[in-house]
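pinned: reference chain
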Amino acid sequence: MSTHEAPPASEALAEVRVRAAVSADFAAIDALIDSAYAHDYGPRTGGTDPMHRAAERAREHDVWVAVDAAGTYVGSVTTRRLGGPPLHEDVADDELDLRLLGVSPAARRRGVAASLMRDVAARAEAQGWRAVVLKTAPDMRGAHRLYEALGYARQPERDGLWIGGKKVIELFNYALPLGVLRDA
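pinned: its C-alpha cells
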C-alpha cells in the first residue's frame, strides 16, 4: 500500500461484492493486478511470472474478484483450493494461503482489501482450515497495518519466499488463527 491520502468518506465504496472469478474476468483481473503492483513497485521489467496471470492461477487455485455496485473490478486475491496445493512451499496441510491480493489504485483506502480478507477468512473457516497465512513485502506497511487490524500476527520464523527449499526473497509471513477475525 502506498502513503497516498485517503479519499474523502463520500468516495468510500458503498458496496463491495466478492465472488469467484470466471474465465471472462481473467483479463480484467490481470490488468487490475498489474496496475496495483506497478503502483506500489513500479513497472515490471524482464519476464512475467506465470502466477501473475489469473488463468494460470485458476488451474489449481481459487481466484476471487471484488466488484463495486457499478460492476467495476476493484480488487482480487487468489487462495489455495480445498484439497489443492498451497501457493507457498512452507504452508501446512491445514492452512489456507493466499497470494496476489491487489486493489485498483483508484479504489484504495475504501475497504476493498479488508472486504477481500474478511471473505477469505470466512470461506477458510467454513471449509475447516486451521489458519490463513500470507506473505507480504517488508515495505508494505499499510498492508501490515490492515493484516494486524484484522487479527493476523507476524511469524518471523516463517519469513521469506521459499522455492526448492531455499529462501529466494525476503517477505514477511502473517497468520490468522481462525475464529479471531476482527473488524478493521
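why pinned: Helices lie at 26-41, 54-57, 112-127, 141-149. The CA atoms of residues 12 and 110 lie 5 Å apart.
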